Amino acid sequence: MKFFSIITAALLPLVAISSPLNAVRDFEAEAAAKALAVKTSNNAHKVRDLDAEAAGLIKRGTKYCDIVHVSTEVDCWWLPKHNGNGNHKVRSFAGTANNIKFTCYTNCEDVHGNTSWDWADDYNCYVPGYYTDNTCSRGI
Predict the structure, then answer these.
(1) 3-state DSSP of 52-89
(2) The domain containing residue 120 runs over which residues?
(3) In a domain, 48, yes or no
(4) Lowest-confidence pick of 3-17, 71-85, 102-116, 123-137
(5) CA distance 32 to 118
(6) Are 61 and 110 in contact (CB under 8 A)?
(7) Is 87 exposed, middle or buried, given 0-12, 13-18 or 19+ CB atoms closer than 10 A?
(8) CA nearest to 137, candidates 113, 109, 116
(9) Is residue 95 part of a domain?
(10) Is residue 137 part of a domain?
(11) Residue 128 neighbours by CB distance under 10 Å
């Protein structure tokens, strides 16, 4: 009986050590590794998209919207803010029935009481939500 107890006591830790443990995923480490891979990829769109995701980019179904509240044209920006470090105007839209495709939005700089910025998917830029019609804009 003692022999069996000694063998059990000696083998039990070995069995426990050799059994595969369920790996615990470290989501923060995975996100940091993904961010590092993207930031070192020299792909400006991926870097911008990762930064936008970190800033709270909100995915939604595709919407086709017009530009409103402007008598001439509104600028579409690389980042969801006016000017600033690393930002530049990508293009401008006239205030007419544009039917521009938007696929997501984020909250950023306030424009006339509206903080949403809509992503113009075909042009790779942001338009302040104040200048998109009610189909896209979260409202003022």
Answers:
(1) HHHCCCEEEEEEEECECCCCCEEEEECCCCCCCCCCCE
(2) 60-140
(3) no
(4) 3-17
(5) 27
(6) no
(7) middle
(8) 116
(9) yes
(10) yes
(11) 25
Q: What's the pLDDT at 123? A: 92
**pLDDT tens-place string over residues 59-117:** 677 889 999 988 899 999 998 888 888 889 999 998 876 889 998 888 888 999 999 99
Q: Does 10 have pLDDT greater than 80?
A: no
- CB 36: neighbour CB atoms within 10 A? 10
Q: Which residues contact 135 (CB under 8 A, 6 or more apart)?
A: 63, 64, 65, 66
86 lies in some domain: yes
Which amino acid is it at 136? C
DSSP 83-124: S-TT--EEEEEESS---EEEEEEEEEEEETTEEEEEEETTTT
> What's the pTM?
0.59
Rounded Cα–Cα distance for residues 82 and 19 (Å): 57
Counting the structural domains of the chain, the total is: 1
